[in-house]
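[job 4471] stage=fold_predict status=RUNNING
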Amino acid sequence: MSETKKQPVHDLRSAISLLQSLKGEFVSTDTEVDPHAELSGVYRYVGAGGTCERPTRKGPAMMFNKVKGFPDVRVVTGLMSTRERVGHLLDCAPEKLGFLLKDSVHHAVAPVVISEKPQCQDVVHYAEDPNFDLRTLLPAPTNTEEDAGPYFTMGMCYASDPETHESDITIHRLCIQSRDELSMWLTPGRHIDAFREKAEKAGQPLPISISIGVDPAIEIAACFEPPTTPLGFNELSIAGALRGKPVELAPCVSINEKAIAHAEIVIEGELLPNVRVREDQNTNTGKAMPEFPGYTGEAKAQLPVIKVKAVTHRKHPILQTTLGPSGEHVSMAGIPTEASILDMLERAMPGRVVNVNAHTSGGGKLLAVIQFRKSSPVDEGRQRQAALIAFAAFSELKHVILVDEDVDVFDTDDILWAMQTRFQGDVDIATIAGVRCHPLDPSQDPAYSASITQQGMTTKTIFDCTVPWHLKAHFERSKFKKVDVKRFLPDFE
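[job 4471] inference complete, writing structure tokens
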């Protein structure tokens, strides 16, 4: 975004300061807000975007300075709900973010453990204190009135393999179940779930820290998945590469694990072996919370439980949260997806893929638009091979739209223009039935299609909206004269 490589952001507060200095990127309110349904209801209108119920829009991040029942804690949301804002936070042109993250994987900088007392431990609350209660200590929002309960949605969950001691960081939905218990939904295949299974098999709890309110570089890095970051790859090292310096960790005060030293809030606990809880046991709504496809997920019948041992935080902490279907999910999940696809495609067919967009409508997971350059007759057909590689690179991808190099993959109108003028349904669709995808897609159900034999299976589809090589001369866009618009509008951007 800037001509220098200076990185002004190193934690949540510096990220907020940067956005406050930019026109239209940050707003705050001193009007008291109820964390139960109202806070998310407000932000849905202000700037959630994504797959949220309409009306919604792309808009600024928002700080709530007065939260009902929690006089000492502010809540911020939407820091990364637009691609442009992520560009500011990572000092990168928005269309180049996938490339930035791809390169950061290959130049990883391992985290370090500091010896001095970290800011995240300015204040310490131990769960053994009879007055301790998560429900009154932290204003975890309830996003809708149907939710299973209050959720922490931006917790950086950090745990280590009990055998190899390799560590991993990911984001999971955490529902407050009691004064000192959280339920945790672990999507199948996540590394921390593998750690939990090992500990549970040995009859041992798994120590876990949950850092809330950190440098956005960490939040995006935490969303990388295999095969880009295989088991044993610590995603904090990607954040280190993004910032050009190691992420600092600090030992926890109540468990044998580490937490992010600059976090606003840290919840320390243990994943208990062989203990499960019904997610909506306190509300009986049958619902969990709004998920990235835009629907409220079903409450899970049996989820692992985190027994909280302590909560530490900075003075006057800021709790960061996100709306599940908002554009923020697209940024955090989608840009690492783009990086993973770009990396595999560049290795497989150098110079052919111009860019990738993990599109907003798929929550950054279900739909990718691939911009492919055909340079010779032998490239015909390779665009579809690129789509197949993308499916392999990111198993939760459902649809791929292929477009030519003259189509802007970040402009939905341009993508749909290509579909209207460079696509014929009888020859330009390719399907792969009977494969796994993301479990939150509600159409992946045997009741929806006879081709689906189990919940969670899908038909992956390629929409080839590229011009056949032998017809390219007939599909040239109208060429307009290049002019200096600032001669006519000096303030034009």
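[job 4471] summary: Residues 1-5 have pLDDT under 50 and may be disordered.
[job 4471] exit 0
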